[in-house]
């Protein structure tokens, strides 16, 4: 018995050690692949987010850009509050979840709620849906919401369109090269359609035709047992068959892919060169647009961070490429496979030596060998998570979610970022009536709220200054403009704002009259 125990230990210890080692490092490779792919997308998405924010500060958006808080540093007592008008209750949520498709039901309810013409109901509900129309006015005299973010949803900025296309293209090419297609074969890239269903994460949920393409023509003529055996021994995963299967699962790119882009990508030799080419296109676009003023007045050192983010994304891609193109060490994989094969022969004799009941020994032998062989096959599936279909990473799903994240950048400014109503903005920008300083209302007829104060003080225009440049109207105009700025508040103490306006107005009028008497004398 002692000799039998020693022989079991002499064989079982190295076998379990090799199998544990291979499973551990195969799992580490799998998890590292997940990590670096998400890191790659995170960095490239940072490029899009930052450049979109910079672009909104360019001259193109001067007419729609919200007022900055830094322009009114004297406003220190206002309270910025938000409220919900139509909140989702537990009862309504339970009712929606009980329906056949809760996701579509929730989306439909959201669109119905926020597409109503009731301005009051839309005032405090931020939304990024491209189907929603801008609010024409607001019941709040100080703050109004624009659900379009100040952007034209039908004709988005060309800068943003090109930026998002290059980011989506770079990601799609990078992910397609990780799947190890046949060298020289065109990368499967097609146009992305916003709002289409997510690519399935579970391979069994894929289209039947796609799953059928996984098997070669020879396998389709074979029995199910033979297909299983060919799959277990890896003979059904040749390079040609894998390329055809990947072609049935193309990556989708925002804006589509042109023939010129495909031709240049095909001329790049090797998968690494293709990704570098896309990265160069992206960085060249950033440089060209920054020099042309598309990033506003953002300082060059800040813009240089975009190149750093692009480089960080390439670091993530190279880490993923390391896993995809460098296999598990061959000697270790071979010695582990050899010991697993020996186990299939050795364990039956071991069970017969310990178990007197032949039937029970056969059952115990089956499950023991199944455990060893199963763990070994699991390690094989995990060691290359980009290639080993159907247990590979859902790269198509990752690309679709990356595209949807990029589409959010079309949203524009925060919906509650505007202070005045649209009518007030229209009056302040398009007023053509020339009025003098004496048309400013007297203290007895002072406006009763902060918003009306701002409109009243804005009636003095520069046109009256040009008509009489020597009159005190110019100084009065400047002073009243300052008073106008000091009177802009979000909400709160209207009485205090009105008193402050009266005091400033009386002081400025007295100064203007005194200057007029001095010039007359």
UniProtKB/TrEMBL annotation:
* Transmembrane is among the record's keywords: yes
Q: According to the UniProt entry, which residue ranges have a biased composition of type Basic and acidic residues?
A: 497-521
* Residue spans of biased composition, Low complexity class: 442-462
The annotated topology with respect to the bilayer is:
Multi-pass membrane protein
- List the record's Gene Ontology CC terms alphabetically: membrane
Q: Does the keyword Glycosyltransferase apply?
A: no
Q: Where in the cell is it found?
A: Membrane
Segments traversing the membrane:
335-352, 358-376
Give the domain of life: Eukaryota
Keywords, A to Z, come to: Ion transport, Membrane, Transmembrane, Transmembrane helix, Transport
The Gene Ontology terms for molecular function here are: chloride channel activity
Spans annotated as Disordered: 429-521
Spell out the protein name for this chain: Bestrophin homolog
Q: Taxonomic classification, please?
A: Eukaryota, Sar, Stramenopiles, Ochrophyta, Bacillariophyta
